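User: Run a structure prediction on this.
Assistant: Running it now.
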Amino acid sequence: MRLALIRHGQTDWNVAGRMQGRTNIPLNAAGRAQASDLARALIDGEPWDAVVSSPLTRASMTAEVLANQLKLGAVLPVAELVERSFGAAEGISPAEALERWPDRQYPDMEGAQAVAARASRALERIAECRPQQRVLAVSHGSFIRHLLAHVAGTRVEHIPRIGNVEMSMLSRDADGRWSVDTVAGVSLAM
C-alpha cells in the first residue's frame, strides 16, 4: 500500500502567519489554485485509487479538488487526520505564542503523545478502509510532521516543515509495517 500525505492548500491565516490548529479556516484563492496545480501534476504521474481527508474545511476543499480532477470518486473523511489542537495559541502568531508561553505548552493544546497515538489510528483506519490501494490523504502540517516522526521512530524536530500542498510518501509492507519514503518530496535522512 502507498500513502501520499498532502498538506492542504494555502489559507489567509497561513499568509498572516497565524496558528490555525483546529480552527476551521477555508482555502483562499491561492490555496484553491495550488490544489488544482497539484491535481494537474498528479494526472501524469503514478495512478491513485482514492482520496481521504481531515474533516477541516481547508483540507476537505483541497481533497475535493484532487478527487474531482483525478476522477477518484467521493472523498472519505477520516476524523483522525484532523490538525493538532494548539488550544489557546490558535489565531495568534508563533512569535506571540512563544512570548506568552516560552515553554510552548499552550493551555488546552493536544499533547505530542496523543497526536502520535491518533496518527497510528489514522494509518490503520486508512489501511482498513482502502486496503492495498494507493491513497492520497489530505491533512495538516503539524499533524503530518508528528505522523512521519512516529512512523520513522524519530523526534518531530527531525522532520522538516512541510509547505502547502507538499506531499510526503509512506509505504506499508505485507506485514502491515509503515515506512517513510519521502518528506515533502525529499528522502528522510536518519
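Helices lie at 12-16, 29-43, 57-70, 94-100, 112-129, 141-152.
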